Amino acid sequence: MSGKPYRLSTGGSRIDRAKPIAISFDGKSVSAFAGDTVASAVLASGQKLFGRSFKYHRPRGIVGLGSEEMNALIGVGTGARHEPNLRATQIELHDGLVAVSQNRWPSLTFDVGAINNKISRFLPGGFYYKTLMWPRPFWKHVYEPFIRKAAGLGKAADERDPDPYEHIHKHVDVVVVGGGIAGLTAAEAAAASGSSVLLIDENPVLGGIADLTAGKIGEGCVADIVSAAEARLRALPNVMILTRTTAVGHYHHNFMMAAEQVADHDPALLAAGAPRHRLWKIRAGHIILATGALERPIAFANNDRPGIMLASAARGMVSRYGVAPGTNGVVFTNNDDAYLTAFALKNAGVNVRVVDSRARPDGDLVKRAIADGIEVSAGSVISAVEGTLGVTAVKIAAYRKGQGRVITERKVACDFVAMSGGWNPVLHLWCHNGGKIKFDETLGSYRPDTHMDAITAVGGANGTMSVADTLVEALAAGEAAAKSVNPKAKPSKLKLPKVEEPKRGALEPLWFAPATGGYNEGNKHFIDFQNDVTVADLELAQREGYESVEHTKRYTTFGMATDQGKTSNINGLGVLAEATGKTIPEVGITTFRPPYTPFSFGAIAGALTGKLFLPIRRTPIFKWHEDMGAVWEPVGQWRRAYTYPRGGEDKHASITREILSVRNKVGMLDASTLGKIEIKGPDAAEFLDRMYTNMFSTLKIGKCRYGLMMNELGFLTDDGVTVRLADDHFLMHTTSGGADRISAWLEEWLQTEWSHYKVFVTPVTEQWAQFAIAGPKARDVLAKLSPDFELSNEAFPHMSFKLGKLGGYPVRVYRISFSGELSYEVATPSNMGRGLWEAIIAAGEEFGLEPYGTEALHVLRAEKGYIVVGDETDGTTTPVDVGMDGMVSKKKADFIGKRSLEQSYLKGPNRKQLVGLLTEEPNDVLPDGAYAVREVKDKPPMQMIGQVTSSYMSPTLSRSIAMALIENGRARMGETISFPLEGGKVVKAKITDTVFYDKDGGRIHG
Amino acid sequence: MLLVTCPVCHASGDETDFHCGGQAHVARPATTDPVNITDEQQRDYLFIRHNPKGLHFERWRCDRGCGKWFHAARDTVTMDFKAFYLITELPPAELQQQAKGTWVEEFKRRAKAK
Amino acid sequence: MVEAVSESALAHRVSPDTTYVDVREITERGMIDLRGITTDRKFMAAVKATLGIDLPKSPRTSNTWGDIRVLWLSTDQWLITCARSRAQSLADELSSALASVHSLVVNVSDMRAIIRLEGTRVREVVMKGSSLDLTDGDYTSGTVRRMRFAEIATLLHIVEDNVIDIYMFRSYADYAWEFLLKAARKGSEVAAFGSS
């Protein structure tokens, strides 16, 4: 570590020298003050080195002052709370904070990866594209792992993030982004005009860079505006102020997202229950962007050495933190603003000189510098930098605009450089949702042009660099925003302070500061520091034909780093313009994408993690299943009991037991998830005829009918049993997964196509707990519960319905079966579900009743050849394909999907048809989805003729059974077909019909 | 995140409170004449949709609100909603005049039917 | 005859003391879903005769008469709430009063769970999961609105300024409860929303 501590004895508007704080950086204790950032604290300790660069592992220090920082990316926190890639210039200190540098091994000062710098002539722009494409397998196994290890940023924590996060919504008339002079004035104007206002600033304190700005207000300075305006705003009830909050993105219809760092600066808040970060989802009537401007670097040889920083950053270090960037500095500029840095340094006792690329700079600040005795070298550039881990000297050379190479240089000893290439308006948020921008020759940068949304840019963000002009503009914008939200808004009557500002000389764009040698003679002129892209890379891309700026961006990765080109974008365009002989607007622009600065995944996820990641739906019997140790099956968002292993059983054993219990005795299934929809009205029967493939208008009251539903394409989407409760009143059952979808489907057709039908549809799925009681003893179990209705076959036959009481519970009972056994489905209001369930379990004990889960349900129905929509169908399966032609009405003129069944492509000769399969070897259970092929070959490709849709070991038949969709399957009964499986095994199976058990269906009427 | 307003219950909200049901004013041939529909007519009804740069007529449902379907006219470039109108209605006259493609014929047919 | 056992959706949950608004389940309300056409005078008259109050016709409003409260759900749909013990008989009365009128009455007392939030910051808590602007003056007492809350479909009822009922389908009650435990966690108050 070089040098001595750089903390000045006085000064530092942000720090509290009475509150010392100790933090750890790379394992070393660093003493600092409350109000410091990691950047200022570490720099004050004398360390300029903060990390290694992404590709070349070059040593890097601090360049910026805030969110624009691209070099000093550090990791903060330990263990599960470690967060990588944070900007050292933004991290506020608290006692005990632990930070580490990144992308170095074994240490920051000695880094093995720095060899990449030595061999950099072999790592030109487009290196990845050129070198690593061949041989193909090498990418996955050799190149990528190596690159991932060598290149890159910090490492994310391995453990689960222990901290809470949350979202919140906010609706407001006017959002002002940026709490500098422009933002404060605009916010006050809008608020005084009667609007509700939300002011957002990414920094912990308001004011932007007012404290670093020239100008006088009477006896005071520009920053005085800030404290006065902030005090007035905080007193207004219609103004909300969010600090430490970054407006990360702007979206359609003035939706804005802002990430608030609630507790990072104060672990005590987190401990007290605060979320670590909070994501604000904001809907604004009008948005005012007062996001200011960012200073841009200058591309001179080796401009990335630690100790070379933006002039504004050097100024900020001195005035905010009382930290000098060194003892002997050079300010390198092409504009007047950087002279303020020279003054600040000189006042702090730091030796400083100015190198100005302009031939005849003549602004007030230049004159003052000369008068103050600061050495100003006009018409000069820095042509070289000496030193590796820090600056030891620079070379200064005479320069004329456009010069490609310098001739003579003189060496000047120094230990830091403050550079300023001008200021770029911050356009990111303006551009996120399609705002147009235009090039401004005076700024040498782009500024906002038009926008389709209600959004205005003011101050630096609008390219307005004078304080007085900014105040006028911001006041007008605030009032106009209020008026755009409420046309009756009154003028704010705000009085603006009178500001005296120095007269400024013109900036002269300097996109490239020449050196004596060529690019590849040890000089690197960095444009994009974070992605290690140099002027040479951009010019190479041009020579290789990447003419479009978007192609150059992707080829070189310029502007694609986590800083989204904040400091590099315009410089890169300037270089490309010079390389191609075009103007900057002719070069074109790249796209700004959210987020403005990276923010945490935790903030994006908000509260919806862990138990809240996905809603889990529970039936009224959930707790009972849980207590019984049920294995769960997710069915949509529902959790259903899959099986109930008992006393050391494995799942296979418990499923077998459950199935045999239903076949031989009796079982009970929680079928509460089945969709239930009440449909009523004079046109209800006709409506159902439109919705189902089969006829429902002929259904008798008190009877049930199984129905098939298609979409308009003629493909099956749902099935279930519908009951006629009264002439004009039906109760429809849908599949568990179809409940919400089908009720919405019915509503859609009722509202949009047949709005004249008098039909009401009310989904009632969750009103009812519903259980299937199935098996030869099912009737005995119900009889035990003293039903107030008759259970005999004659009084209560298959496919009929009863309303009554069972075991004291009000019930609706449907005699329907999905197992092929004698079966009743009993529904009772949900709150009574658990009670009735337990009553039935108790009543069934003597008959051997066992609860069964969804897997037994599936095997039972497969043994009977009953389809499951979604298993036997795949969204392109028609009723004809599954052999249910008989359920497609020929009598009805129209129903959903009818006409599509007549389309030629659904009537072709090679449709896949549902068949049963019996494997030659009874113990072979075909995998779900296994392909049947026309002819088995040594290796693929083989022609596929169909696939398995359901496959089980049937305990009832003591052999495997399967169903499959096979080309022309019904014409191939008895044929044996082959299923080549992974690993070379071929299973042969005979095509049969789909009913494997109780083919005459006698049991159901038992 | 689009801001949508239901013309039935007049509630405004995020697009996630609504459900977009695709292109509006597509006539279902089987409703009027189930017998005489050519394969081409059925194909067009099922699959052929506009993808205009500019004015688009679409169906929405107030999914998390009153549950009613309605129509919207939206500019696909600016995302501006030009109108919200009832599911049984045609677009405002000035928007009908700006319509292109098969909407032109459909609006004429519907006007005649009225 | 056995006495039927009844258990609400959140019977296994205990109201927390870890939240900055009170969170509890409301179990004593019965609910009836009513469908009908407001321009049908017979319908409106029969309902009024049975309930004693007019159905609210303005979107997002509710009417109250004694223990009966009618919440507007849609232009042709209402949720009537009353004492749970009275729900079935009231539903039966409505059904018979509407026997000859196009309508649909369903007792749905067990279909939804109700979670009541009470405290000065209830609106802030709800806005952590909903995009509605509950700070807007439109959301006065009596306002009813279906909304997406966290990841689920819910019904919001502003009972009083500082009392909000959230209705959700029974199966989602645990999810909503968990969300509220987290969103209303003490210490997570949103400072920028002010102290009330």
Overview of this structure, please?
With about 1000 residues, chain A is α+β, with helices and mostly antiparallel strands. Helix content of chain A is about 20%, strand content about 25%. In chain A, the strands form 13 sheets. In chain A, strands 8, 9, 12, 13, 14, 15 and 28 form a 7-stranded mixed beta sheet that branches. Chain A has a 6-stranded mixed beta sheet with strand order 40-41-42-39-33-43. Chain A has a 6-stranded antiparallel beta sheet with strand order 45-46-47-44-49-48. Chain B has about 110 residues and is α+β, with helices and mostly antiparallel strands. In chain B, the strands form 2 sheets. In chain B, strands 3-4-5-6 form a 4-stranded antiparallel beta sheet, with no helix packed on it. The termini of chain B are far apart. Chain C is of the alpha+beta class and about 200 residues long. The model of chain C has no long low-confidence stretch (mean pLDDT about 95). Helix content of chain C is about 20%, strand content about 35%. In chain C, a hairpin with a 2-residue loop joins strand 3 (about 60-65) and strand 4. Chain C has a 5-stranded antiparallel beta sheet with strand order 1-7-10-9-8. The relative contact order of chain C is 0.20. Chains in contact: A-B, A-C, B-C. At the A-B interface, helix 21 and helix 25 of A face helix 1 and helix 2 of B.
Average per-residue pLDDT of chain B, rounded, comes to 95
* Arithmetic mean pLDDT of chain A: 93
- DSSP helix count of chain A? 25
Helix/strand class of chain A: alpha+beta
Low-confidence stretches of chain A: none
- What is the number of E strands of chain B? 6
What structural category arises from helix and sheet content of chain B?
alpha+beta
Order of helices and strands of chain B: EEEHHEEEHH
Helical residue percent of chain A? Answer: 10-25%
**Major sheet of chain A:** 7 strands, mixed
Shape call of chain A: elongated
- Proportion of beta-strand residues of chain B: 25-35%
The span between the termini of chain A is 91 Å
Uncertain segments of chain B are: none
What integer value in Å does the Rg of chain B equal? Answer: 15 Å
Distance between the termini of chain B: 37 Å
Strand portion of chain A? 25-35%
Kindly report the spatial arrangement of strands forming the biggest sheet of chain B: 3-4-5-6
State the major sheet of chain B: 4 strands, antiparallel
Radius of gyration of chain A: 38 Å
